[in-house]
Amino acid sequence: GKIVTSVVNDLLMPPLGLLIRRVDFKELFFNLSGTSYATLNDAKAAGAPTLNYGLFVNTIIEFLLIALALFLIVRTVNRWRQQPSPATQECPFCRMSIPLAARRCPHCTSEFKSAVSAAT
Q1: What are the start-end ranges of the H helices in 1-120?
Q2: How far apart are the two ends of the chain, measured CA to CA in Å?
Q3: Do the bridges between strand 88-90 and strand 97-99 make them parallel or antiparallel, or are there none, so unpaired?
Q4: Domain boundaries, the chain
């Protein structure tokens, strides 16, 4: 929460603000009333309705950072998991998927020694 907010507000947004020639994204807003205000705080103090798209951009960037961090964690954990052994094998004659213990292919009716029967 607070760490991500600090990263967004203190590290990411100032360089982005310089690129669009505005220093503080929090001050970006649309005033819905007929009067003009210099800052968002002035508009809020006057009770003017505003659309605070700068705060929305900050929130979206925070969300994307959290989503990226969770994605990287889940991907790393999934790499540590061992893949399950296959429960099927491929018929050497018709190339259809059949159970591992099968001795005859149900698709082409070919007889063969399966990996399980060959191991016993």
Answers
A1: 2-6, 13-19, 40-46, 53-80, 115-119
A2: 57
A3: antiparallel
A4: 2-80, 85-120
Q: Which residues in 84-115 are b (16+ Cβ under 10 Å) and which e?
A: eeeeebebeeeeeebeeebeebeeeeeeeebe
Kindly report, residue by residue over 30-71, the tens digit of the pLDDT.
Answer: 888 888 888 888 988 999 999 888 888 888 888 888 888 889
pLDDT tens profile 79-115? 888 877 788 888 888 988 888 888 888 889 888 774 4
Query: What single letter denotes the amino acid at residue 21?
Result: R
Helix (H) or strand (E) holding 98: strand 97-99
Total-model pTM = 0.57
